[in-house]
Specification:
With 605 residues, this protein is mostly helical. Among the domains are: 46 residues, no CATH class; 184 residues, no CATH class. It is built from 29 helices and no strands. Helix 15 runs antiparallel to helix 16. The longest helix is centred in the C-terminal third of the chain and has 43 residues. The radius of gyration is 34 Å and the shape is elongated. The two termini are 57 Å apart. One of its GO terms (biological process) is CAAX-box protein maturation. InterPro entries: Rce1/LyrA-like_dom. Keywords: Membrane, Signal, Transmembrane, Transmembrane helix. GO terms for molecular function: endopeptidase activity.
């Protein structure tokens, strides 16, 4: 504001000087030839601004000479120079920057005990320099006001974020917001609290915060609530903003509505601002696609997919979305401009079905070599060979992929998603997986019939010592789960999908349904595929040791849980070993079921 006033004064002075009576000689001292050069006249104005700046700065310095202990006056001088130093339009901004540096140095040396002075210095520093200056202030800030302490923590939060120390940045942000609910570090505090399992506290901070003065800050709050908080907090914040008057943009509104399952309302908000679609970001276009799918608007979804396919020229990222589109409206398979995606979908299914060959072809070759040199492999299950292993894996992979794609496939338009996951997304994951299991069971039924009841239950003479190792594995899993839970660590955090499946099943049918799915259906299905068909087929051609290692490695890898990869591999190896020792699948199924039950209870407890 001060800069604008100075500009007005200078321009007005120049205008007054150039006014002259008709026929009179110019009183401005500016020649007509100069007046014909607007660039030169602009320089006159700029130089006038600089002169006015220097006059005011001189007045500050003169006043400080008379009042050297006036911290408020010294701070005002720094804030005055800061406005010109930060300008990108002034050719002499570097001069103001030097003046600002001198002023800050004076504040630091002469007024180090004044909170406002040191906060100004801190807030004009960044990264490690700010941390080194600000951390010692924490000890001396106890008698500061709450707002001043909040500014200190906010500045440290920004500095730690600059140095990529997200933990300290989040901790300082939380302290800042608790001291001053109006702190601009609210969104960062919410991120930290949710990341550390304190979503309720994040929601409380949001509810207690007053409306911000800047619209973009409120939009950021609503988007953060949509992305981070599991309930209706984002919608509540949207309604609070609407009552207060600020006009929230259509995409932020749509995110909040989509989050609570109001896809029709989200689509209406986006349709009302159709003009913005021409310049939307990939994240916003992803949102529009998700809203179109959930509201049942197949044409709108098809248009978004087509637009992105035309822009990128690559079909791979949109095959899942195309499959979901066909599930929404099968008639769209005839849409000519989307035919490349149809071929891409068919190719993807064929590739998934053929993928077991990468493992099984070399195994078949190795088995042939072993037979020629007289090494005989003894299969675990007499009626299971490599072709059954291939078919079982193909059915399992294709149906899991295809059913999931048809039910909830999504184009990867934005690598970070839309930030508008619905509050019922976990239930939708569970429902999709249940359909996938049903179709897998139907597809694998004919292979399951190849195993006799003895193959399922086991045969021969069992020994108690065989079960010591499996029991030890379960005990380790149980103890690790209990210790981590007691320590407040989420053991299953690396497998978000599996955790979502448990929560979704609980939401649909309670803990009994979660146990039925993960501790009954899944163990039977996966043991049939991996220990029955894959291990059974491999062991017909190569040694049991290599067969067991290969099937366990594939079993562990397909779970996509890097944190527990070693444990899953061990589980697969021990399950395969049990299948051989007991000559059946019942004990591997039981081991798998107990492990999954421990997982379910660790999630729901």
């Amino acid at each position: 504001m001060l800069l604008r006033i100075l500009k007005i004064i200078v321009v007005a002075a120049c205008a007054v000087l150039m006014l002259e009576p008709a026929g009179a000689a110019p009183s401005s001292g500016l020649a007509v030839e100069d007046l014909r050069l607007p660039d030169r006249m602009s320089d006159v104005v700029v130089n006038g601004e600089k002169s006015a700046y220097e006059n005011v700065l001189g007045a500050y310095r003169e006043a400080l000479t008379k009042h050297p202990a006036d911290a408020g006056l010294a701070l005002a001088q720094c804030k005055f120079t800061e406005r010109f130093a930060a300008s990108e339009d002034l050719s002499w901004a570097d001069v103001a920057s030097q003046d600002l540096a001198t002023c800050q140095s004076t504040l630091e040396k002469q007024f180090s005990s004044d909170p406002e002075a040191v906060l100004f210095v801190l807030e004009n520093r960044f990264g490690k320099q700010a941390i080194d200056y600000g951390e010692p202030l924490l000890k001396s800030s106890n008698n500061w006001s709450a707002v001043q302490q909040a500014r200190l923590h906010a500045a440290l939060s920004r500095s730690y974020a600059f140095t990529k120390n997200d933990t300290r940045a989040g901790q300082e942000a939380v302290l800042a917001v608790r001291l001053d609910p109006a702190s601009e570090r609210l969104v960062e505090a919410m991120h930290y609290l949710v990341k550390t399992g304190q979503a309720k506290n994040a929601a409380n901070l949001l509810a207690a915060a007053p409306m911000p003065k800047l619209l973009w800050q409120e939009n950021a709050r609503i988007r953060a609530a949509t992305e981070l908080l599991p309930g209706t907090e984002a919608l509540d914040e949207l309604h609070r903003a609407q009552r207060a008057g600020p006009k929230i943009d259509a995409y932020t509104t749509a995110r909040a509505l989509q989050h609570v399952g109001d896809s029709a309302g989200a689509e209406a908000a986006l349709t009302a601002d159709a003009a913005s679609h021409k310049f939307e970001s990939p994240q916003n276009q992803q949102l529009r696609l998700e809203v179109a799918f959930d509201s049942g608007n197949a044409k709108a979804a098809a248009d978004v997919i087509h637009d992105q396919y035309v822009k990128t020229g690559k079909a791979a990222g949109f095959i899942g979305a195309y499959a979901h589109l066909l599930n929404l409206d099968p008639a769209l398979i005839g849409r000519l401009d989307l035919l490349p995606l149809a071929f891409g979908l068919l190719a993807a299914i064929a590739l998934v079905a053929a993928s077991p060959g990468v493992l099984l072809f070399p195994v078949h070759y190795r088995g042939t070599v072993r037979q020629r040199i007289g090494k005989v492999s003894v299969p675990i299950f007499a009626r299971i060979g490599l072709r059954h292993a291939w078919l079982a894996l193909a059915i399992y992979f294709v149906l899991l992929y295809l059913v999931t794609a048809l039910h909830s496939g999504m184009a990867l338009i934005s690598p970070v998603g839309s930030g508008a996951s619905r509050i019922d997304w976990q239930s939708r994951v569970a429902a999709s997986y249940l359909w996938a299991l049903l179709f897998c069971a139907l597809g694998l039924a004919w292979i399951a019939k190849l195993l006799s009841w003895r193959d399922w239950l086991g045969s021969g003479s069992w020994k108690l010592k065989w079960f010591i190792v499996p029991a030890g594995l379960l005990l380790i899993d149980l103890l690790a789960t209990g210790w981590l839970h007691h320590a407040g660590v989420t053991k299953t955090a690396s497998n978000v999908w599996a955790v979502a499946l448990v929560h979704g099943a609980v939401a649909i049918g309670g803990t009994p349904l979660a146990l039925l799915v993960l501790s009954v259906f899944v163990p039977i299905m996966e043991e049939l595929v991996f220990r029955g068909c894959l291990l059974g087929g491999l062991s017909r051609h190569i040694s049991f040791g290599w067969s067991n290692v290969l099937q366990a490695a594939l079993f562990a890898g397909l779970h996509q849980d890097s944190r527990h990869l070693v444990f899953l591999f061990a589980l697969g190896v021990i399950a395969g070993w049990l299948a051989r020792k007991t000559k059946g699948l019942s004990m591997p199924i039981l081991l798998h079921a107990l492990n999954n039950a421990i997982f379910v209870f660790s999630v729901v407890s």
